[in-house]
Structure to design on (389 residues):
């Protein structure tokens, strides 16, 4: 007796870059899902509601309800999608190239975005534009140099990877 | 042809570097350590030499198998994929996702908000700033661990999540965060610090540990 699997539910804000990463992955892998918007600005920020906090104690988007669990953290979600719905793949086969993909993704996800997210900019106050520009620029300076070594058509080689979104067919050049 | 020993660029007190030191110790990988002092000389990570090695101008960086990697979790995943035993991830994809969610929460959601560079920009109120981000991050983590933890962060095996937890707790202690509200984090941290890999990689036992902080 098999139950029909429930459609995944993505908690997302239209302009959240972290949510967008997951939306790209779901689209690339052809996974349909329901989207529940969480407005990070209205009502003092809907991510702080008791209801959303119970779903994701980190009080952030994205969160994904899938296969009976709820996950947060965009790259943890994307890795889960990669491991359970492996085609098309978001990572190269070669471990060194996989490491380059993760290095680039982590640089953006840990080294740039958190320093310019809504919560931080609210704390910074008046000089937030300058603050955000500073961290994005300095992060992009480093990224530009790294991409000189890794990039083909996309961030790492010629197949789209989870460094910025991805589809690839598995017969790659070795 | 013997392969060269890996070289880790590390700062004794950098929590990001400590994560990788734990992974190398757990996997029994010997390496040479090159200290990069983040404070001296205006910060040695800004030297032309180090910048050429790692444009992100951060530690850790690892030279291994003919490539140079940065970003602690990218490095740890590479070690996991090329030296798979002992493993730092569970077999089950859902548990793997929980490990990564916890690790990413620390690595993206807490540590960057209290790293040296940011605190320098914050200036006077940096203690309060760091305490705020660590506390609010630990509040969330304490709740998540209620669901995932066994002896360690996820079940009873050491994982990447644990490698991220211990260094972050050390940071919390340095910033005098009250750990009272986080009994699960405290318990797990204590259990992990009993393991040899967490001891040998500890900031107080590194080649660049200052004499007054050495264990």
């Amino acid at each position: 007796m098999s139950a029909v699997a429930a459609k995944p539910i993505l908690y997302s804000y239209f302009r959240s870059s972290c949510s967008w990463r997951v939306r790209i992955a779901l689209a690339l892998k052809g996974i349909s899902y329901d989207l529940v918007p969480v407005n990070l600005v209205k009502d003092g920020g809907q991510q702080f509601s008791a209801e959303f906090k119970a779903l994701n104690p980190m009080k952030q988007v994205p969160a994904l309800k899938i296969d009976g669990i709820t996950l947060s953290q965009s790259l943890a979600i994307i890795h889960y999608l990669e491991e359970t719905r492996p085609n098309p793949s978001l990572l190269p086969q070669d471990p060194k190239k996989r490491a380059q993909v993760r290095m680039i993704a982590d640089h953006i996800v840990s080294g740039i975005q958190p320093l310019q997210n809504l919560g931080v900019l609210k704390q910074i106050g008046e000089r937030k534009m300058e603050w955000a520009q500073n961290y994005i620029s300095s992060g992009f300076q480093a990224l530009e140099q790294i991409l000189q070594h890794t990039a083909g058509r996309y961030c790492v080689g010629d197949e789209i990877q989870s460094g910025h979104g991805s589809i690839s067919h598995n017969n790659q050049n070795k």
Remarks:
- The mean pLDDT of chain B is 97.
- The CA atoms of residues 103 and 161 of chain B lie 4 Å apart.
- Chain B touches chain A at residues 55-58, 65, 67, 69-75, 77-78, 81-82, 93-94, 96-98, 100-101, 103-105, 107-109, 111-113, 118, 121, 129, 139-141, 143-144 (CB under 8 Å).
